[in-house]
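Cast an eye over my tokenised protein here and flag anything odd:

===
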Amino acid sequence: MTDYVGRYGTPLYVYRLDEVRKTATALLRGLPQPSRLYYSLKANPHPSVVRELTAQGVHAEISSCGELRAALSAGQNPADILYTGPGKSIHDMRTAIRSGVRRFSVESRTERGRLGEAAETEASDVEYLVRINAPGPAAGSAGLRMTGVPSQFGVDFEQARAQPELFRARGRLRPVGMHFFPATNVADPTALFEEFRLSVETAAALRESTGFDPELIDLGGGFAAPFAKPGDLPDYSSLRESLEPVLDQNFPGWRDGRPSIAFESGRHLTASCGTLLTTVLDVKQSGGRTYVVLDAGTNVLGGMAGLGRIMTPAAVPLRVAGAGPEAAMAGQPPSQAVTLVGPLCTPLDVLSRSASIEPIEEGDVLQIPHTGAYGLTASLLAFLSHPPATEVVVDGTTEVHVRRLELTETPLKGVAR
């Protein structure tokens, strides 16, 4: 890590492709077989990371034209891409269709109509899944509930039962399946199984009430990972054994692809691959507190902290000899609690109000683990116009790619939406 800091400075993200491979292999092994796995690019759209997941047979789930460009540049077959999200404009849809995307998740009757208009305009046949807000919640806890509560996501279960026309072909549109995504960041494998079980049973109930026999059921995700702190990825290897009987009971032909079963994962696939390196700019005292000023703030990490969704980062000095973040924090308790802040000119630029860390000084480099998901691109990149962090992708000891994103002005004139 010190070599990378010497070459590229800080703040610096380092992504390890060997870790991406290991995590993808383990998750794929734990899913019912056969099934399809989508990678949610919102977690980390870096093309090198997406390219590695593509090589592992993982497809792309996208929610913007920017993510579409990243997926295509990473070698994704556009026919394998799933376009989701509750706010797809006609411009988004037409751009995706022109790029070869043929499968969308629709969140309402209005959005289905907009997709039909886009398909007619582009003279292309398009398939769609209806996203369902299933009843719930199931047992257990989650980072964020996406369904089972009032939500902008999907069509409520009772509304879907009352609108069987949503599941009927129309013009160039052909319905092929149902899309579920009940929760995120469910660390308990048993609780996640219950979420999937409820979704399978909801799909079966909709099949009976609407007469629609799905070709694809996307059960979504919820696979968890630590964020910016030490810890192990949850082990979901029991899902295959527990979920396959539920699928057998409700959709006996699923093992032969009638219907195909799909899952989605973002943070679980990429969180552990990333480490953020940041330099201590100052250590100062105020009101009995120790403030550590870093060159990485909420413009680099944790930009969603204001939404209450990002957990407090933990950091370890890079100078701890021979130890990575996990090993260093497993030793003796640190000697002081400090407030980690960034360089931005606002009191809101706080990464941690009570980080436990050994004594540090100006010039030290800290490493923050598990930042391969919801790191740089989930941050306040444009705030105060600091240059974004550099990103280095490595495979073992080999540097694969180095880049720094730049915010540029693009004059627009008469752009049709």
